[in-house]
Amino acid sequence: xxxxxxxxxxxxxxxxxxxxxxxxxxxxxxxxxxxxxxxxxxxxxxxxxxxxxxxxxxxxxxxxxxxxxxxxxxxxxxxxxxxxxxxxxxxxxxxxxxxxxxxxxxxxxxxxxxxxxxxxxxxxxxxxxxxxxxxxxxxxxxxxxxxxxxxxxxxxxxxxxxxxxxxxxxxxxxxxxxxxxxxxxxxxxxxxxxxxxxxxxxxxxxxxxxxxxxxxxxxxxxxxxxxxxxxxxxxxxxxxxxxxxxxxxxxxxxxxxxxxxxxxxxxxxxxxxxxxxxxxxxxxxxxxxxxxxxxxxxxxxxxxxxxxxxxxxxxxxxxxxxxxxxxxxxxxxxxxxxxxxxxxxxxxxxx
Length: 351
Description:
The protein is α+β, with helices and mostly antiparallel strands. The protein has helices at 11-18, 23-41, 95-115, 164-178, 186-208, 266-269, 275-288, 296-305, 315-330, 334-345, and strands spanning 6-7, 68-72, 82-86, 127-131, 140-142, 147-149, 218-219, 234-235, 244-245, 249-250. The longest helix is centred in the middle third of the chain and has 23 residues, at 186-208. It is globular and about 55 Å long. The relative contact order is 0.12. It has a six-stranded mixed beta sheet, with helices on one face. The chain has a two-stranded antiparallel ribbon with strand order 7-8.
């Protein structure tokens, strides 16, 4: 099982910011890129008392409960940092700590209540997060063991714990790691990113009690500084429209295979081409209506946990798997039609 280093902000966007004429923006972006490069090559060692091997202590008949720990890096890069809040602990005077704690809980709740899953590995994996990472760090990441959040540069990015879907997105990389283990490169990597966006969106909608029609389908809404011309990092409803800013550039995500981006950057464009499967999920969920986690989300969950995917799974193979999962769970009903129609709309074959 691989443990990829997965960030919410793609390197191509940070590289663009690093060339900004604004020294504060450029310096923060360069510092973030350097920190990411260092963290990407760091070897992750499980802590004996809190690693994935630790079994949940609840009896089988009891509902699963999260085991959260939030650490403070105190603007350094050593992980995990100083423990500041554990499971059941009182709220602190630090809003960032409290948001991280709540976001971990919201993600755990969605997976438990909607899918009957006990944490990201299905066996009570402790949920670990570090906040206040580095100086002006403009990213959040999953390193195979825990989540890490920067405070942003207050020029482009605000605190990365502000959007609950950013927290859920990073934690969902752990879900993928423990299930389909999609390789973080090219189409399988774009699927890896898309799955995190899908479940990130579902956590946000579940927490707000929203239907597919009520949801904004934005990933990272509220993360940008008010001066930025943009609403979010990504839009599942309309990929390519999330931002268009003089400093930030324009959202490069495609919504259709005709516009698939072939690049050697960003692990083969994993954060860019994820717009295609993202849009397929949005189309399926809105076609079905109601709460997106109940049917469309259930199909995607079944695919991820069904054992039919390989680490190198491509878009078309994933699409075929969603059709098979829809048929297995719902038969020849509205669900299979919605999924087939959604993939056709983004140019991905299902036969």
